Amino acid sequence: MDLDLLTRVVNTPGISGCEEAVQEVVGAEMRSVCDEVRRDRLGNVIGLRKAGWAPGTGRTPRVALAAHVDEIGAIVKHIDGDGYLRFQRVGGLYSQTLQSQMVIVHGREPLKGVIAPDFNLREGDKIPSPDDLLIDLGLPRETVEELVQLGDPITFAQELVQLNDKVVMGRNFDDRIGVYCLLEAMKRVGDAQVDAYFVSTVQEEVGVRGMPVAAYAIEPDLGLAIDGSLVRAAHVKPHSVTCDMGKGAGIYLMDNLTIGDRRLVSFLCDLCEREGIPFQRNIGGGTDASALQRTRLGCRTTTIGAPVRYMHSTVQLCHLDDIEATIRLLAAFVEHAHELAEDVA
Ligand SMILES: [Zn+2]
Question: Phi and psi at residue 80, in whole multiples of 5°?
Fold first, then answer.
């Protein structure tokens, strides 16, 4: 585990459409090991590690691994007469988790604030709509108007915390844990017989908008999205999910946008068994795999990733052993992908 890199990947702000700062962190890591790194017009960052050796005379198969770098947050929508801010959500924030959260408004300078608790609410009242919530920066209106303009991004202030020696917490583990696993796997891959593309995608949380462009450019034969797996947790009905925290990398069978390629799913499960990597079968939400699967001529694809508790809240939990299992699976996949790619190249 490179806790320093994990911390930088998690703590650097980047809501959908404003991913530049965190893509700088990602790009620097990619440049240290990739043969080529490029950034496309939407902001996706794509690193290529060329095959060390490729058999035969046919073209070298291409494998894409992709994790989305954007996090959910908000933008400033209105500054009211007292200097409080109203905001527009970016991505699927739960309205019941918003009040009393600390936030950072990225104005002319980063400004700390809080989403003001509404003490008029009584037990049993309806949860207020995010449109009715206000951000209090603790500053007079004139200062707010000088420093903030409409459209400034807002992120949650929660930074990475280690709860104990195995479990970490962060505001955006969906999908910064995936990005971290992508970068670690990229460094660990040994000899591979495929061209491996490592993709840090933008704008997944607002409807898989970055991935299609990257997939079109790469035209992969095989693709894996890396994203959080749904997991048993407090307030989650045990029968509604299939994974447990601490029991290994999740391999998606299907999600709301994609049915995992069955041959690829069995290949991944066999690979885990062969390599002694703990894994669990997962049924998930919806991921970048949908665009990998259906761009151009399409490719065999599914999603894998460490289980993450309380996704789309500011207190997401993840187990370090699951992160390690995910990294090992990704690296082993790239090393063995040619075994599966031969029939599509
Ligand atoms: Zn995600």
Answer: -90, 180
The answer for residues whose C-beta is within 8 angstroms of residue 237's C-beta and 6 or more apart is none
- Report the length, in residues, of the chain: 345
From 19, 204, 205, 335, the catalytic residue: 204
Of the candidates 210, 198, 224, 218, the residue with the CA atom closest to the CA atom of residue 296? 218
Q: Which domains does the chain have, with CATH numbers?
A: 3-71+172-341 (3.40.630.10), 73-156 (2.40.30.40)
Give the residue with greater pLDDT, 10 vs 345.
Answer: 10
Q: Is 204 a catalytic residue?
A: yes
Ligand 1: distance of its center to the CA of 59 in Å? 32
Helices (H), 219-317: 262-275, 289-294
Average pLDDT, the chain: 96
pTM of the model: 0.97
Please tell me the distance between residue 97's alpha carbon and the centre of ligand 1 in angstroms. 18
Q: How far apart are CA 345 and CA 334, in angstroms?
A: 15
**CA dist., res. 32 & res. 140, Å (int):** 46
**Cα 15 to middle of ligand 1, angstroms:** 12
* Closest to 249 in 3D by CA, of 271, 223, 233: 271
What confidence category does residue 58 fall into, taking pLDDT thresholds of 50, 70 and 90? confident
- Residues 95-119 have pLDDT tens digits of 889 999 999 999 999 999 999 999 9
Please write the tens of the pLDDT for every residue from 188-246.
999 999 999 999 999 999 999 999 999 999 999 999 999 999 999 999 998 999 999 99
Query: Separation of 68 CA from ligand 1 center, angstroms?
Result: 7
